[in-house]
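User: Show me a protein chain along with its predicted structure.
Assistant: Here is one chain, sequence first, then structure tokens.
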Amino acid sequence: MKKLLSVIVVAVLVFSAATLCACSDKTPDAISSKYEDLAESGSFVNDGGKAGDSAVFDFGKTVTLNTVVLKEKGDNVTSFRIYADDAVVPVYGNDFIGGYRYCTFGETQVNKLRIEVLSADGDWKLEELEAYMIKGNAEGFAVMSYINADTAYLLSEEQADAARIVTQFNVFGCAHFDADGNIILADYEIDGEKVDGAEIMRVAVENIRKANPAATVVATVLGNKDFGDGMTTIARHNEAMKNNASALTANLLAFINEYGLDGVSFDYEYPEKKKDFDIFTDYLEDLDKALGSGKLLTAAISDWCIRTFGYSAKDFESLDSIELMAYDMFDDRGNHSSFYNSCYSILSNMKKKGVEMTKVNLGLPFYSRPMNGDSFWGSYSDVADVLSPYENSVMQEYVDLEGVAKPAALNYYNGRQLIYDKTRFAIDSGAGGVMIWHFGCDSFDNELSLFKQIDAAVNGEYIIK
């Protein structure tokens, strides 16, 4: 899902740099119209300074809150903490503020909040603060996760605990289609022995169902492998979805039935021309009709594709859910999935498009990208025990996609607090769920697990220590 063409990387960099704006933004109506802004009658005692200085906001009364919105004039803050009154232990911490930062934490009673800026690129100034007390769990909120077919095939009891948090699994990596519309299952090597793809898929689905009988299971089908046709991925999709659409649909229906799946998903990256998108969306519409109401049809969609090819709300009507790839979106600091770009802004763009937000599952990365943009995708599980819950970047040596060993460089992850914040913002702003790429990257230590943070957010709890 993450091997981007160089031209796409450039396009995303240009777009992301433009969107990392210095202007403040509006809290979604789903939040501001439902909850009282407890900071409305308060004011800043101090609102700016340098690294090491603090802003203080006086509510003018005692309030109970668990959510703070910070808006910065400019974009200089690079690490901050929030303290209740004169406390020495913060209730919250994270990296950037910028135009909009949603800060969520445990229920806290305060008269004043102190925002300590640990580091900054220069002088900083906060221009607005909002505060809310948001209660309740998120009934019906989807926790959808991609899972490698071989991970599901080898699913351990330790992993099964996290699997029970997931409401929908997308099994990927095993099922492919060719230009003629045939479904081809990839074989795997497990413990030095070759295992037939059909067996991998069968056991993978069986293990997921055993671990979490309530979860739905769909298979992601990919047209990205050359089975002797010599075609590009785009040409193969076009041929299968246009000239051989009937065969592809018939084979998909048979595949779903054979493995007892609840539906099918597409991870199509990336068409180069609008006609490619038109073929894709036309096929989705036809496939949706063939699947009927009893089976799910989902697709992974990127903000880059939406903006470049003009996806409209109508293009999403055939999908039961949209897996919004809110990652690999590098801003000008090199953060590939920061809060502003990859949560606030991307959900706002979908809302402005008129998309039914209950269909949107916000993508959460359980992996890193180097802040220099290198071709490496690190697993959160490898750094979970050294990554502060309030920070998202860590120095890490790595081997890039070409097999070249690289010296230690900053890698940007989404730490526990950021995952919690994004999940809560998705819930509070009316999105349908979150989507995780991918299951096998999490730490299965309960204290460090990102799935546990998502589960806490969905259930209206707060567990970060």
